[in-house]
Amino acid sequence: MTETISFSLFADLGARHVSTLRAALRLFCEKGYFNTSVHEIVAAGGVSVGFAYHHFTDKAGIARAVYDHLLERMNALLNDIEATHDGAQDRCAAVVRMLFELTEAEPEAMEFIIHARHREFLPSEKSICSTSAFVRMRRFVADGILTGEIKPMDPVVAGALVYGAAIRMVCLRLDGLVPQPVGDYYDELWQNTWAALTTHRGLVSSGSE
User: Fold this and answer.
1) CA 134, CA 159: separation in Å to the nearest integer?
2) Alpha helices in 59-131 (DSSP H)
């Protein structure tokens, strides 16, 4: 992968907000939402209990702030992808690069996005796959079918082909089952992914020249 993304988590917040949300993110990933208390979050974040309750109301408010800011940052990255890449192939490839780079740069954020069962503790929120960021990712695929870049197929199947293997690689990396950075697998994975979506490209193996 030759391109890199610029990703600053909670970039628009003050220092104490950042400390609180980063501490919560780390503890939610390590212990789970239900096994984490507000007092543990404020202790890890170096802020007062009063600050946490004043700005976030309760633990669910902290979790919602983490969730909202992560999706907001993903949407900002997708805005950049949409503005700087033309066509389904380039946009979808950039999304896969984004997912891989976030996995290495912000593994706890990716852990929270992919593994956390958000609706168990944020019941009013949409499932992660129904959020605007993931809907936009699927739209890049659907647009490719409409323009003929992707061969005719059910958009649901096409979306699974485009992102399914990449997200599985992310999960394996987060679980410690892939020892190398996932970016090391990007070229082979993406070439074979795109080959499955078109009618004129052969599959590529790690031994291919």
Assistant:
1) 10
2) 59-84, 87-105, 107-115, 118-121
Q: Count of alpha carbons within 13 Å of 99, Cβ hemisphere only?
A: 26
User: How many C-beta neighbours within 10 Å does residue 174 have?
Assistant: 18
- CATH of span 68-197: 1.10.357.10
Domain locations in the chain as residue ranges? 68-197
Q: What is the pLDDT of residues 95-154, one digit of tens each?
A: 999 999 999 999 999 998 888 777 777 777 767 777 888 899 999 999 999 999 999 999
pTM: 0.85
- Using the Cα atoms of residue 156, residue 2, residue 74 and residue 189 in order, give the sign of their dihedral: positive
